[in-house]
């Protein structure tokens, strides 16, 4: 196992993943470190972003995961038995998914679901869990937590549902949060509120946030660093503020394909893809 320096929470080296029964790796030789920062993983649909996120939590029962290193603090995630993974998952590394509708149980009120998640990890009375839930709901800017506690998932808006999911994920003070398209199902103003909450987690609690998205502009404006994925590989890693200096032709193509409001009217360029980009990838 590697000795991680104090700034590194998570370290991944040459991660490759192949789904059983498929002829090629869905993810190949992906490497990155995560500190107390916002790391974006961006790429088109099918490029392997979510597969990387799920692999970190070993949530891929139908895939083979190989890596030279996949380490969270002093835990070797690759070789950790499932029993210990249960303590890592949801407690020290949490995940938020795109649409709260699919994550919340439709036939149970929202508050008790959060209580239950807490009591799965921490031994405490129902009353203590309820108090913790209400405090967490308040911390994600839900103004009337008592009322929201008693609502069913279909009675809350998408933005409220996503905040409930974030509250659920924060219960155990995780060190790493993997947010997989957390705002794609939300409208623009609610999206900003949710990003604000995630941003505060990095600033105030010092978590490491992995933001998975296909939205280059969102990642560019929100994250500190960005990994660009193309067909299962990271082809470029950049500081978000240096995006305009991208060197890989795929990243340049993605940037050129962004529409500019107010600019001269012109057809958007077609995104070029070349098979040779996948041979001998050196992350630039
Ligand atoms: N359970 C599975 N079995 C087989 N192949 C899969 C499975 N899940 C994903 N894949 C394949 O792995 C590749 C990467 O998929 P993944 O969902 O990680 O991409 P993504 O970049 O997150 O895409 P999206 O933005 O659409 O979610 C795709 O080719 C996909 O078809």
UniProtKB/TrEMBL annotation:
Keyword check for Transport? yes
Which GO molecular function entries does the Swiss-Prot or TrEMBL record give?
Answer: ATP binding; ATP hydrolysis activity
**Gene3D superfamilies, per database record:** P-loop containing nucleotide triphosphate hydrolases
Q: What is its main location?
A: membrane
| SUPFAM superfamilies in alphabetical order | P-loop containing nucleoside triphosphate hydrolases
Asked if the Swiss-Prot or TrEMBL record annotates the protein with the keyword Transport, the reply is: yes
Family classification: Belongs to the ABC transporter superfamily.
Q: What is this protein called?
A: Peptide/nickel transport system ATP-binding protein
The source organism is: Cohaesibacter marisflavi
């Amino acid at each position: 196992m590697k000795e991680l320096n104090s700034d590194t929470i998570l370290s991944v080296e040459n991660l490759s993943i192949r789904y059983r029964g498929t002829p090629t790796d869905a993810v190949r030789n992906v490497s990155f470190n995560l500190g107390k920062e916002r790391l974006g993983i961006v790429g088109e649909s099918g490029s392997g972003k979510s597969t990387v996120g799920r692999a970190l939590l070993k949530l891929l029962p139908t895939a083979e995961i190989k890596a030279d290193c996949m380490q969270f603090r002093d835990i070797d995630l690759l070789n950790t038995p499932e029993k210990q993974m249960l303590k890592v998952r949801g407690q020290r590394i949490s995940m938020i998914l795109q649409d709260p509708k699919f994550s919340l149980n439709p036939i149970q009120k929202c508050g008790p679901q959060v209580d239950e998640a807490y009591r799965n990890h921490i031994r405490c009375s129902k009353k203590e869990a309820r108090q913790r839930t209400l405090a967490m709901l308040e911390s994600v800017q839900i103004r009337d937590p008592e009322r929201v506690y008693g609502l069913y998932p279909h009675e809350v808006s998408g933005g409220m549902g996503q905040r409930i999911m974030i509250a659920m994920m924060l219960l155990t003070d995780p060190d790493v949060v993997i947010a997989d398209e957390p705002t794609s199902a939300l409208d623009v103003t609610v999206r900003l509120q949710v990003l604000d909450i995630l941003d505060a987690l990095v600033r105030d609690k010092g978590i490491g946030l992995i933001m998975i998205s296909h939205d280059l502009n969102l990642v560019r404006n929100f994250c500190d660093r960005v990994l660009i994925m193309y067909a299962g590989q990271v082809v470029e890693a950049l500081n978000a503020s240096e995006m305009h200096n991208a060197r890989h032709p795929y990243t340049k193509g993605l940037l050129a394909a962004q529409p500019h409001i107010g600019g001269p009217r012109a057809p958007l360029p077609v995104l070029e893809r070349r098979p040779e980009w996948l041979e001998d990838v050196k992350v630039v």
